[in-house]
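Tokens as discussed.
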């Protein structure tokens, strides 16, 4: 196992519907899965968490989510 780790944090959608609708959400689409695959292939442990209520970013909530991962 590598000691290299990466957490990719998605952007902030304008509202809850866009964030959670499978048709419009972006946290698991576009370049993010590709980047995770490429990093994993280079033996870099990569996480792509869904941040809590990303349409209303809250530092403490994001920090709590981020701290779940051993970086």
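Sequence:
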């Amino acid at each position: 196992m590598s000691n290299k780790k990466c957490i990719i944090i998605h952007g902030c959608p304008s509202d809850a519907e866009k964030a959670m609708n499978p048709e419009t959400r972006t946290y698991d689409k576009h370049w993010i899965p590709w980047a995770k695959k490429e990093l994993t292939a280079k033996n870099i442990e990569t996480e792509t968490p869904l941040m809590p209520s990303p349409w209303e970013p809250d530092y403490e909530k994001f920090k709590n989510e981020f701290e779940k991962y051993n970086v």
